[in-house]
Amino acid sequence: MIALIQRVLNASVTVEGETVGKIGPGLLVLLGVEQDDNEQKAQRLCERVLGYRIFGDEDDKMNLNVQQAGGSLLVVSQFTLVADTQKGMRPSFSRGAVPQEADRLYRYFVGQCQERGIETQTVSLPPICRWHW
């Protein structure tokens, strides 16, 4: 399981002109699920994400985690994070979990975050690319 975590003042995801997920201050988490991932890895990642002290305290020192800072999470399913780009010029997504298992573990990760009392918005988009000419 791999996550790209970004501290944000606000974040949103818009699909075809409609906002499907939105938060104020907090963390934007792009989450990719790999074949060998399981609930234990999801739980560990949740603990790490919620525990990182990357928000400023009253002295502007990075000393607070997202909950202590009063932030929330926007978790976006992002299978491209597990891409293998070691060979050739075309990324391989063979390390990614099958869609049903990836969705289950994504939802498990989100549930673990919510159980710890943090407001969590979710966006689970299918892996579709559309070209516009």
UniProtKB/TrEMBL annotation:
It holds the Pfam family Tyr_Deacylase. GO terms for cellular component: cytoplasm. GO terms for molecular function: D-tyrosyl-tRNA(Tyr) deacylase activity. The keyword Hydrolase applies. It comes from the Bacteria. Signal peptide: none annotated. Keywords: Hydrolase. Belongs to the DTD family. PANTHER family: D-AMINOACYL-TRNA DEACYLASE 1 (PTHR10472:SF5), D-TYROSYL-TRNA TYR DEACYLASE (PTHR10472). This is D-tyrosyl-tRNA(Tyr) deacylase. It comes from Serratia fonticola. The gene is dtd.
